[in-house]
Amino acid sequence: MGAALVTFPDPVTSPFDAAEASAARLAEATGVERHDVAVVLGSGWKPAADRMGEVTAELPMTELGGFPEASVQGHGTTVRSIRNGDRHILAFMGRVHLYEGHHPNVVAHGVRTAVRAGAKAVVLTNAAGGLRPGMWAGQPVLISDHVNLTGHTPLLGVNDERFGPRFPDMSHAYAPRLRELARSVDPELEEAVYLGLLGPTYETPAEVRMVGALGGELVGMSTVLETIAAAHAGAEVLAVSLVTNLAAGLTDEVLDHDDVLAVAATSAERMGTLIADIVGRI
Predict the structure, then answer these.
(1) 43 assigned to active site
(2) Does the domain made of 15-281 have the CATH classification 3.40.50.1580?
């Protein structure tokens, strides 16, 4: 008889075991036992990975197990291991979104894998709509806090104490230390509250007014579940939004994903350098 087929742990029902298994595959594929910092690169942020150091390995996320194929234009499907001096950086070239139909644990699988691979800090990037007066397309903004209106959480169900406590404190989910470090790289960086919605539609003008009434200054369709999972697992989180448009109703322009990618492409070099400099100091 042939060897028994080994089934990969399901990140939906066994998120800790799945993260452990993916971290083990990562170590085997890259030859790096532990990565120090993880970076998740959203729409248009790929140039950041090109500036972080020497790429020593790059492989499809799907080879790690637990990751679905990307289905959105502008989002990558690979993960890089990057050497920066004596440190190792893990860069996810894209992310998984709730609006693709995935379970919250699948959305959080990347950051959980990174933490199990040794990352003590997780840097999240995204493209976002700006609500605060004075914000402009192409502006990088630090996320100081969030409001999760996706209707989902990666902590639903029985808590696995191997990740973290049943009721994790989120009062400092976006680490003050890392935000201060980021401002030491660029003192002009502003901070704002990010409100996460499910998507994939852009917001209606009425929804944008609701976001503002709830304290949101940035709006997008990612990041909040990854932050919850990373904070739950004990990692420090830094998140940076690239304002790619003013939110619906604030201008007469029709929102289009191609326009978001175009703004990201125009800002790519500057944003890449910013993130690379920040990661180099963590």
Answers:
(1) yes
(2) yes
Among 57, 257, 262, 265, which one carries the catalytic annotation? 257
Contact 239, 126 (CB under 8 A): yes
pLDDT in tens, 77-105: 899 999 998 999 999 998 999 999 999 99
Q: In the annotation, is 146 catalytic?
A: no
Angle at 202 between CA 67 and CA 102, to 5 degrees: 20
Alpha-carbon gap, residue 116 to 46, rounded angstroms: 23
pTM confidence score: 0.91
- 102 noted as active-site residue: no
Select which of 19, 35, 38, 43 is catalytic: 43
- Let me know if 257 is a catalytic residue: yes
Q: Are β-strands 236-246 and 121-130 bridged in parallel, bridged antiparallel, or unpaired?
A: parallel
Quote the crossing angle between the two packed helices 224-232 and 109-116, to the nearest 10°. Answer: 30
**3-state class of 45 per DSSP?**
coil
Our answer to whether residue 271 is catalytic in this structure is no
Rounded-to-integer distance, Cα 78 and Cα 69, Å: 10
Distance CA 124, CA 218 (A): 15
CA distance 227 to 146: 9
